User: Fold this.
Amino acid sequence: MKKSTLLALVTVALGVVALGGVIYAADLAGDQILDKMIDHQDEIMGGSLIMTMKLENVYSDGTSGEFVFAALAKRSTDPSVPDMALMYYKEPEDVAGTIFLAVTPEEGDSRMWLYLPALGAVKELVAEEQEQSFAGSTFSYKDIGSQSSTQDDYDAELVGEEAVTVDGESYDCYVLTLTAKPDADVDYPTQKLWVSKDFWTSLKGESYDEDGRLAITMEVVRLGEFEGNVIPDEMFSKNVIDGNSTRIIFLERKRPEGELADSVFDPENIPSFDPSDYGI
Assistant:
């Protein structure tokens, strides 16, 4: 099942969960728990969505940086229609108006573009450029905009149970170890997820590099609610190796009055994008 990583910031990595209807997975294997978590989240996050978020970066040398974005995303139930996401830089002033666009088909690699208003040009990002840091964060452009197929790339094993505390509340979780399949093209061969028993969401994650070193950690800091669903309002990610960290804070989520037009995500239309048309 396709799923862009931008949407994963709202779903798998950030965990979108339905209130009520709790189903316990006592008799399920690791792969089944992962499937249920992702499938349930995909169902909730279909259609068009508009978000505003803030990234707070802190670097190992003591410096920091802050960015505010508005994001438009569209997901169709039709597998022939690609996932589409557009991120509009609102702050700081020196980069305001910059736009990052990603289009992810059902099969094949995502295509990504960057619009720099000072140059008035739209540039498609090649593979090497996709590996660069997005807005100085612990995420790359590839992390934000590429296709992420956790179910296809990893085998999941249920290795235990453990409580995870979020904002003073304790949540019982299943602990999954994800191991990359032999033919998977992934950055991290091994990952761990702590999946809430009640919410079918990952409240904590760890990624390990090829040498078995802990490389990236991700945790939910604060939960909120959107359309009757429990969702993360704040996340914290740290690159354990280089010491840099990123805090992700969701400021607003809303549905547009109608479905977002596909033309919004056409790279030729990026220079004429007007955020006021979407209340952002």
